[in-house]
Input
Amino acid sequence: MHSLSRRLLVSVAVPLALFFGVMMLVLDTGFRTLSERQLHALLDSQMVTLIAAAEPNPSGGYDAPLTGLDTRFGTPDSGLYAEIRSSNHVWSSPSTSGLQIDFGPPLAQGDRQFSYAMVGHGRVAIESRGISFQDETKQGEPLTFSVAVSLTPYEQQLWVFRSRMLGWFTGLMLLLLVSLAALLRRVLAPLRRLEREIHQVEEGRSETLGSGYPRELSGVALHLNALLVGERKRVARYRDTLGNLAHGLKTPLTVMRSALSSDVASGTQTRTISHEIDRMTDIIEHQLKRAAASGGALLGQAPVAVAAVAADLRGTLLKVYARKDLSIELAIPEGSLFIGDRGDFIELLGNLMDNACKWCRQRVRVSVTVESGRGEARANLTLVVEDDGPGIAEENRAKVLERGVRTDEKVPGHGLGLAMVHDTVDLYGGKLTVDTAPLGGARFSLLLPGKKVG
Amino acid sequence: MRVLVVEDEAALRETLKTRLIEAGFTVDIAQDGEEGLFAGMEYPLDVAIIDLGLPKLAGLEVIRRLRAARKAYPILILTARDNWQDKVEGLQAGADDYVPKPFHFEEVLARLQALLRRAGGWASPELKCGAITLDTRAQTVSVESQAVELTTFEYRILEHLMLRAGEVISKGELTERLYDQDFERDSNVIEVLVGRLRRKLDPEDRLKPIETLRGRGYRFALARDQAT
Output
């Protein structure tokens, strides 16, 4: 069972049903006992009346005149029947006319019997007693007095009772379960809120979880927030440290370089030192930048608006390449979003566009298509940067994308920037391909994670 | 040519000063953001070199304030922070070029000189003349609210013509605005560019924004809107 609510409801329903079941059983038994006692009481009192009313029949046996009896004995099929049997005479109450009732075997004096029989469509309960009247003249002859009462009214009563009871108890149980379900919804509302807020943080719509959670959840919320904040701080601190390190190293390097180039004596030593300074610079550029890339979207970051970033970079590059007559076209649908770190994305696109501007003859084009593949949870971005320059020869394409290309191996002109692009794309689980653009130069196509769909 | 160098690292500052003087510049120096801002405001400069990581007042802020005060000379940024986000920020704040540290002095010099040749100043953010609007920050052009894609040189020619709307600009002057180098350029290049410009701006030949004055040059025929 994967739902707390359902679990609870089922676990409660079972003992509840058991409890109600037992209760119904108890009540039922009680009712039946009561009914039976009523029955016996009725039979007894009728029996007594019958015996008291019995009068000897001149030709033997006894009769019971109707005047002393319950009127029902006189009405056919009334549900109350009586019989007085002696060895040679049987008196049956008029109510038995047309019916076959087996009152049971005759009894010896003092015997009592209680039995059931079928009469027509219904059952009857029969009480029989063996009686003999004593008087001065003769030995009392053995008589069997029997009274039968139809069980139909009792059975009907029981049926009504049972169906009512069942109805009420079932209704009660359903009501209880429904109330419980509603109560659960209320009680678990903070959990749903937690879920909603985490979703919002994932989408980048808010940075942390809210406050005001109940005691049991506040611990979770607080710790989660601490985790989010701590994580962001850590990355920021890490980047700052690396940035400062880079800055710190670059300044002495700059001084060294300037000092060297103004030095009149240019011998092998100067050249060697100059070369090593260049290498150190490259390492700083490449390694520190790679290490500082955040590498993946942190929870709670707002998504990056691609069109705005591209427009900014276009403005910057037009200034940087002011010596060149170029045009940078942007074909980016509004609302295209990149899910990830903004710094990473700017560096990525900046490097690609810079490369295109450097090598193009006149035209650079940046286009974006947003697609959600079948059954994908994300609408992925395809980012294409192309130029009309000389392009990249097929044999060099793999090298250009090679990760961590060392300075002495790099393809001339296509430097560390592209390796960084490849690293970043990898980090985000995307794909980078290089081929020839329709414009004639190089075309770089990137597949990057986009907005979550649904 | 008078140049301001704002750099907090002493050794670097001195090196730059020495070498710029050698190259023929008059050099003013400042060692923090506040001094830099003061110097930038008060002295009649032709160009400025500003480091971003300054004490007292950040380099970016200095640039923004200088531009807000309508100081129009070109500004070159020098900094160790060599990522695109900072580049974009720096150039949007009002700088014209960006040289990462460590640098070769020769490159800085070359870029300085290029900036000086091109210097048209920092125009107001939007230029509007009739149906043609120029967004100088984004470097985009729209004609009757429709965006038009221009190359860098076409844009620069249009910008210069619009800034001096109504005045006659010679081909030579336009050539100077486009190219760093001094050598002879085929004057036909300007004609070709203006032709392309006309076709892009005014395909149906309705607006006629650029007039040709034989033997003298070109003139932007639409009047500049008062607001810009």
Summary: The mean pLDDT of chain B is 85. The interface with chain A takes residues 9, 11-12, 15-16, 18-19, 53, 80-85, 87-88, 91-92, 96-98, 101-106, 114, 118, 137-139, 149-155, 178-180 of chain B (CB under 8 Å). Residues 2-118 of chain B form a domain with the Rossmann fold fold (CATH 3.40.50.2300). The helical segments of chain B are 10-22, 33-42, 59-68, 84-93, 105-118, 152-163, 171-178, 188-201.
